Amino acid sequence: MTEDKASGGEVWLVGAGCGEGLLTLEGKRVLARAHTVLYDALVPPEVLQEAGPDAELLPVGKRSGHHSMAQEAINCLLIQKAREGKRVARLKGGDSFVFGRGGEEALALQEAGIPWHVVPGVSSAIAVPEHFGIPVTHRGLARSFTVVTGHTRDGQDEDWKALARLQGTLVFLMGLERLETICRRLVEEGKNPDTPAAVLCGGYGPLEIRIDGTLNDLPERARQQGAFAPAVILVGPAAGLGLHPAPAGKTGKILVTGTPSFCREATGELERAGMEATAMPLLEVEPLFQNIPEDFARYPWLVFTSRNGVRLFFQWLRDMKKDFRLLGKLRFACIGEGTARELADQGFRADLVPDSFTAQSLGQALGKAMEPQERCLLLRAEEGSPDLLRELEKAGKAYRDVAVYRIRSLENQTENRQRLSPRVMIFGSSKGVHAFFRQFGLSPETRVLCIGPVTARAALEEGCCRVESARTHTVAGIRAVLEEEGEQPWVIFR
């Protein structure tokens, strides 16, 4: 990689592949040297671990039905970061130029005079069918394959007559919502209704479903078997070969769900301890920068209840080009060690961390530490725990509660909830618990482990019979439970 030019930074459009282990060596090298990484929702959390420890990670959340940032805003952010002299990695699932809008971003960068590069990625159009044992080409059955988007922004329909005449394999991406239309229109234009077809759901993820059928019955089979996005649709004789590769051996794994950042932190911690863990992010963080008050320095105390709150506040400071010397006389309160470490990574030490990492304990500690006339500024999630406010009011302390971000569920609506059977299921928040059980069921044999008592109570509400909570409400505390060293480092809820 070349060094930054004096006039500014550069941008790399990096394809992350469509699953754990499919990031290329070049992509890994670029991520390791990037100052800033803009990543999409479908990027595997394991891939983000390849970024350097000081890299700025910015989720832009592009996902069908859950766009947290418009494409034009992403283009502007890429240009802005490059003009700050940074090496920027634009990280996308699959390949940037295969329905990834990489071309649109390249045009915007080029028009702005920003140098840009492309690192190809392994597209789901090929990788997912291969993963499930379906070759997109096969001698005597398919001499070609055609990749088609399942939906278009402008509403223009496909040339179904031309697609129906093709003799190779048709690969539809992002088309699950239109599965019935796809099958019906191909038959209407002359495709044999008995043509083999398949829906491949969740390829390379912790949850995978292969649904086989024909153009005639595939939509009904997909409804009955609970098809979910992301999914790849295959049409053609090669889909009927009946090839089934040996399972990858994911049974018995530890499954982690929550936000991408929590999944990344938890799986990294467990894997460093020699445990096999798989991430299944079902939540995303949406910044609410417009809520942060310009007069934040008027508050003697800044209070953070999560690592996300710290990260986003300091991102806002940088984006708004605020003078960090404004923070010199302020004091910081953090709910726990993880939040305090995030603050330390930003160059500031926490003045207050309660002994017990709960909202209630934080409120009680603040009530004792604050002077009578002082006010504190709470920088936290939109649906923050009321326990913190309750304790501050009980102590007669003034506060301003500001939502720095909200947590949104990345939900796939299915008629049938599939039951999962990991050896251990790890939840990082109560919202993550509820998001999971809106989509899936859990085997009674699965060991349920939660980061704290609030999350544990949510798991009990969802019908889990035996739920454990780490005594230390951190990722390290979760690891200690699984290692079971010394005295029991957990609390059991029934």
Biggest sheet: strand arrangement: 12-11-19-21-22-23
- Which word captures the global form? globular
CATH superfamily annotation of the largest domain = Tetrapyrrole methylase, C-terminal domain
Task: Give the helix/strand class.
Answer: alpha/beta
Alpha carbon gap, first and last residue: 55 Å
Distinct helical segment count: 16
Structural domain tally: 4
**Which CATH class of the largest domain applies here?**
Alpha Beta
The CATH topology of the largest domain corresponds to Methyltransferase, Cobalt-precorrin-4 Transmethylase, Domain 2
Give the biggest sheet: 6 strands, mixed
Mean pLDDT: 88
Strand segment tally: 23
Shape-level CATH architecture of the largest domain: 2-Layer Sandwich
Radius of gyration: 24 Å
Low-confidence parts: 1-6
Strand content: 15-25%
Helical content stands at 25-40%
Which key features would you list for this structure?
alpha/beta; Methyltransferase, Cobalt-precorrin-4 Transmethylase, Domain 2; 5-stranded parallel β-sheet; 16 helices; 23% strand; globular; disordered N terminus
Account of the protein in words:
The chain is an alpha/beta fold. It folds into four domains: 10-122, Cobalt-precorrin-4 Transmethylase, domain 1 (3-Layer(aba) Sandwich), CATH 3.40.1010; 126-240, Tetrapyrrole methylase, C-terminal domain (Methyltransferase, Cobalt-precorrin-4 Transmethylase, Domain 2); 254-282 and 410-493, Rossmann fold, CATH 3.40.50.10090; 292-404, Rossmann fold (3-Layer(aba) Sandwich), CATH 3.40.50.10090. The chain has 16 helices and 23 strands. The chain has helices at residues 25-33, 45-48, 71-83, 102-111, 124-131, 160-165, 179-188, 218-224, 260-272, 307-319, 337-345, 359-369, 386-394, 430-439, 453-461, 475-483, and strands at residues 10-15, 36-39, 56-59, 87-92, 116-119, 145-149, 169-173, 196-201, 209-214, 231-235, 254-258, 277-281, 283-287, 301-304, 331-334, 375-381, 398-409, 418-420, 424-427, 440-442, 447-450, 467-470, 490-493. A six-stranded mixed sheet has the order 12-11-19-21-22-23, with helices on both faces. It has a five-stranded parallel sheet with strand order 3-2-4-1-5, with helices on both faces. The longest helix has 13 residues, at 71-83. The termini are far apart.
